[in-house]
Amino acid sequence: MKVAITGASGKTGFRVAEEAISAGYEVRLIIRSQSEIPDSIKGCERYLLSDTNGITLDYALKGCDSLVIATGARPSIDLTGPAKVDYLNIQKQVESCKRQKLKRVILVSSLCAGKLIHPLNLFGLILIWKRLGEQSLQKSGLDWTVIRPGGLNENETNLKTQNILFSGQKTQEEGSIPRRLVAKSCIEALKTKESIEKIIEITSSEENQKTTMSKAIKTFKI
């Protein structure tokens, strides 16, 4: 299976690429022309998107079987960033997938997506736009999964002791998780048929009981 990854130069995206490679997938990185990527994924096929080279997203997705969307707005004085990146850009990617007959899509979103009263919304109503981006995928007719991680961190020293808490939507409002475990969850979702048409919230801690995404989904309340 060939997996395309948008936002592959980001802190979560490049980890998704590494985990996909480790799982045996053929990986295509879709990045901006000015983006830098770590050496660990430089051997992957790359498509550069910019206004000057004429390579469209449709062309970049051609021949791929699945897409992991790891794009996300970054803190900026431009408060329109979340609307552009977390909603309009998601719409663009969804429509491109439909044109290319690419059915399987994993979207990395955020815990509390859609919640209005939240400190993160001081940054351009980011949680509102993330929810609208999720909805555009949900309505697409594609085989989608939304991964909603808690607060992201870079810690990779204690991954073996961290167990992921998988839950359905609107069940977790706080907690954190290493980006590496988010990346692993994206690849696990690709392998888990039960994750299709599911919003999955994830945080991690040493106290959580060890489980799999597939087993956890069976306990979700509809």
CATH topology (fold) name: Rossmann fold
Strand order of the largest sheet: 3-2-1-4-5-6-10-8
Enumerate the spans where pLDDT stays under 50 for 5 or more consecutive residues. none
What is the number of E strands? Answer: 10
Task: Tell me about this structure.
With 222 residues, the chain is an alpha/beta fold. It has one domain (2-217): NAD(P)-binding Rossmann-like Domain (Rossmann fold, 3-Layer(aba) Sandwich). It is 29% helix and 23% strand. The protein contains 6 helices and 10 strands, in the order βαββαβαβαββββαβα. The chain has helices spanning 13-22, 57-61, 81-99, 126-138, 179-191, 213-217, and strands at 2-6, 26-32, 45-49, 66-69, 104-108, 143-149, 151-153, 163-167, 176-178, 198-205. The strands form 2 sheets. It has an 8-stranded mixed sheet, with helices on both faces. It has a two-stranded parallel ribbon with strand order 7-9. Helix 1 (13-22) crosses helix 5 and helix 3 (81-99) packs parallel to helix 4 (126-138). The longest helix has 19 residues, at 81-99. It starts with a strand and ends in a 5-residue tail after the last helix. The relative contact order is 0.14. The model has no long low-confidence stretch (mean pLDDT 95).
Care to give the gist of this entry?
The protein is of the alpha/beta class. The protein has 6 helices and 10 strands, in the order βαββαβαβαββββαβα. It has a single domain, classed as NAD(P)-binding Rossmann-like Domain (Rossmann fold).
Secondary structure topology:
Blueprint: E1 2-6, H1 13-22, E2 26-32, E3 45-49, H2 57-61, E4 66-69, H3 81-99, E5 104-108, H4 126-138, E6 143-149, E7 151-153, E8 163-167, E9 176-178, H5 179-191, E10 198-205, H6 213-217
Parallel strand pairs: 1-2, 1-4, 2-3, 4-5, 5-6, 6-10, 7-9
Antiparallel strand pairs: 8-10
Helix pairs in contact: 1-5, 3-4
